[in-house]
Amino acid sequence: MTSHAVFAGMPDEGLAFLEDLEERNTKDFFDAHRQVFREQVQAPFAALIETACGRLRRTVPGLGQPRVHRIYRDLRFRKDKTPYNTSMSGGVSHPASTPGRIQGGYYVNVGPAGMYTAGGLYHPDRPALERLRAAVADPDAGRELDRILRRAAARGMEPWLDPLQRVPRPYPADHPRAGLLRARSLTLSRRHERGSWLLTAELLDRLVEDWRALVPLNRWLERLPED
């Protein structure tokens, strides 16, 4: 993905298009407004992602290449067959120092409702999940994670864990970090309700601030011992 535009906010016309798309989510409507989508939604959002990654690289050298997700919905296993997303999303992977290390990431979604930012580890495979649980249970690594989560909370980032109902074996149900041991994901997120800031460069500032708040968690994940 390449974009050399200077990001100054999401255009009002682009947000209006996405709002209209919520009401008229059809191929005919999208095709009739494809140029608006490309110029007033896709291009500025790509500039947002690229510029945010450029800033984040000052803190996280070796950051991956940013990616913008497609506007088209995956309809294969959904009852709702409307063809288009009504917001834009994208992100970038946290660098792994060596092959086999766990990679966290940085995510953003922007649309008429506002902005949602998130990052960390989302629904990892079983080996990675086992490594995560072992680190959570470890006295030193687990306490470090507790500190990371407290500091992130002070910056407005909330955990999303998609927890199991019970603590998995072989960990005791009364473990001091039982809630984290039940996690099937280890992510932090923040929701910003829509405001005039969406139309300005403050959108970029808020995104970079949230992504920087995610760096300690992603670094903790990247340091997890390999199998």
Summarize the topology.
Elements (H helix, E strand, L loop, with lengths): L11 H12 L3 H6 L1 H23 L10 E2 L19 E6 L11 E7 L2 E8 L4 H12 L1 H16 L3 E3 L17 H4 L4 E8 L8 H21 L5
Antiparallel strand pairs: 1-2, 2-3, 3-4, 4-6, 5-6
Helix pairs in contact: 1-3, 3-7, 5-7
Q: Tally the helices: what do you get?
A: 7
Shape: globular
Percentage of residues assigned to helices: 40-55%
Calculate the mean pLDDT score and round it: 93
Order of helices and strands: HHHEEEEHHEHEH
Spatial sequence of strands, sheet with the most strands: 1-2-3-4-6-5
SS-based structural class? alpha+beta
Description:
The protein is of the alpha+beta class. Helix content is 41%, strand content 15%. The chain has 7 helices and 6 strands. A hairpin with a 2-residue loop joins β3 and β4. α1 (12-23) packs across α3, α3 (34-56) packs across α7 (202-222) and α5 runs antiparallel to α7 (202-222). It starts with 11 loop residues before the first helix and ends in a 5-residue tail after the last helix.
